[in-house]
Design a protein that fits this description.
The chain is mainly alpha-helical. Helix content is 68%, strand content 0%. The chain has 6 helices and no strands. Helix 4 runs antiparallel to helix 5. The radius of gyration is 18 Å and the shape is globular. The two termini are 33 Å apart. The relative contact order is 0.11.
């Protein structure tokens, strides 16, 4: 897993592709044979801005350290987050019985809204930790 430092960090192009893949896609897509230069430059800008932000933190290692710290301190929240990514967000997950969201909620003894809320909060908390560690390194402990 990239976040845990088990794989190398993404390139600007890979970040841009990831961001594009998780953005909402309309049900009906427009067919256009022209070259989308603006779209290409927007993707490059998105990827470059993510790389620039990571460089301001110091390196990808700062992000990895924040993720590993979160995983160690909040193992249940981390596992819930990972399971949501793997199973709820997976378009191939079976929907024949209880939804995967309900299964995860039951497993952790919370309701489905809590699972969704934690899924959204985990990356924000990790980002704050990475930024906070960066700020402490620059300005000292408050």
């Amino acid at each position: 897993m990239i976040l845990l430092g088990e794989r190398p960090p993404l390139s600007a192009q890979q970040w841009a592709s990831l961001v594009q893949s998780i953005q909402a896609v309309p049900d009906i897509e427009r067919v256009d044979a022209s070259v989308n230069i603006d779209g290409f430059f927007n993707q490059v800008a998105v990827g470059d801005s993510i790389i620039s932000f990571i460089e301001k933190l110091g390196s990808w290692d700062v992000v990895v350290e924040a993720v590993q710290s979160f995983r160690r301190i909040f193992p249940s929240d981390w596992n819930l987050f990972v399971e949501h990514i793997r199973f709820v967000s997976n378009p191939l997950a079976s929907r024949l019985h209880d939804s995967m969201l309900c299964r995860i909620a039951s497993k952790y003894g919370v309701d489905a809204k809590t699972v969704t809320r934690r899924r959204k909060l985990v990356p924000v908390t990790i980002a704050r930790e990475a930024i906070g560690g960066f700020q402490i390194a620059l300005f000292g402990d408050f």
